[in-house]
Specification:
elongated, mainly alpha, 109 residues, 5 helices
């Protein structure tokens, strides 16, 4: 969450584009949150892989949503669905990648 707050605010009149300069940051933060959450639960819990996936994809989206709600309350800033979409893509991508890796490793044992 703190890393999301460090992203620079956007001017109120700037158009939000799919390929804007901050989108890579949102994707990277999403990958870090999703991958970190799944990796920690994989190492520390006895839950099923599907439970870990559900937890990480759900909980991983909260910081991104929180960041956009925070932005909405700031002067000269706004809530961005595109930023949230990039964060979501990172969380889902990393979580599903690690879930698939775990399933591949577990079935080989």
């Amino acid at each position: 969450m703190l890393s999301l707050l460090a992203l620079p605010p956007r001017p109120a009149r700037a158009e939000d584009h799919w390929w804007g300069r901050d989108k890579a940051l949102h994707l990277t933060v999403g990958v870090t949150i999703g991958g970190g959450c799944y990796g920690m639960l994989w190492a520390a819990s006895a839950d099923r892989a599907s439970t870990r996936l559900a937890l990480c994809t759900t909980l991983g989206l909260l910081p991104g949503l929180g960041k956009e709600l925070y932005d909405a309350g700031q002067p000269h800033n706004r809530f961005s669905l595109l930023d949230l979409a990039w964060t979501t893509a990172g969380v889902l991508g990393a979580s599903f990648a690690l879930w698939g890796l775990e399933r591949a490793l577990v079935t080989r044992r």
